Amino acid sequence: MHLQQRITAFVKLGYFLEQFSNKVPTKQDNVEYNDLFFDGFKHQLKLAEEHNGWFTKENIQFAINSWTEALTKDNLEKWLSVYNFDTVTPKLVAIVMAGNIPLVGFHDFLSVLISGHSVLVKQSSNDKHLLPFLAKYLEYVEPNFKGKISFTEEKLENFDAVIATGSNNTARYFEYYFKGKPSIIRNNRNSVAVLTGNETEEDLQNLSEDIFRYYGLGCRSVSKVFVPKNYNFDAFFQAMYHWHPIINEAKYANNYDYNKAVYLMSEFDMLENGFLMIKEDKSYASPIATVFYEFYDDLNSLKDKINAEKQQIQCIVSNGFIENEVGFGHTQKPHLWDYADSIDSVEFLLAI
């Protein structure tokens, strides 16, 4: 199977997903195998929402829309144009997927197959309904994928390389268990924003998307902001306010109430507006419904600190602060070439 065939198959998958990127799925006549798959995928979306309370209809739709926008011929060809696929020896690559946001492991799945390898997927129990169905669709639009995609709930065996994503604790286990294989192993990371006080209202409203999308559960979600001494949070809270309906969602509200009670009983200083708390803290990983903040003296010292602690950071949201920064409101809209942990997975896959 040539690279162009693989690209074409994923472009067709993008066309299929596009039907589900709006609030009401809309069946299109020109999408291949729609009679076989359209109603079935609607059912899988319903199952995913029922199975995991964090996978709301809106968040699943957002994830699908993101992949619809990514899986275009132009995007795929731009992404892959810098690599040489001529010398690939097909291998079996295992992927251990996280389950914190919908289809969070799809980029690894795509990278393995687009590189010409076969894939063995071990999914998280939190996100198990969507990907197997999409894999079956791929096998229909490109029959050469048959036999190259498998899923397992058992112990991973007989694979040649592995990409595994988990918590800091499971990452240590992965490093031990997979030590004899070529591997990419990812652990906990969080994203930060650097504010100067000169942000516009639009900047801060865009930042709210980086904070609240997926309830802050993604590694690209902003969980901490760095602010100058004596920063006034009034404009920040005002820009967050349009997300206030989030407190009506039970799982979020339960976390908000619990964490607020913990802070109050511990007599921690914090500010809150009824659906979001901010607390001064040097940690990067904040609980749900909480954003940590830390004061800085000057931007150069802050840059040194962030560079020294970059292994804990996924994205840096800022404006003209640092190389490879992400614009306000764009953390949850990565390009295909925006690799997790800045590790080029395609380069890894071409070298195994």
TrEMBL record:
Keywords, ordered alphabetically: NADP
Keyword NADP: yes
A molecular function GO annotation: acyl-CoA dehydrogenase activity
NADP found in the keyword field: yes
Listed SUPFAM superfamilies: ALDH-like
GO biological process: bioluminescence
Protein name: Acyl-CoA reductase
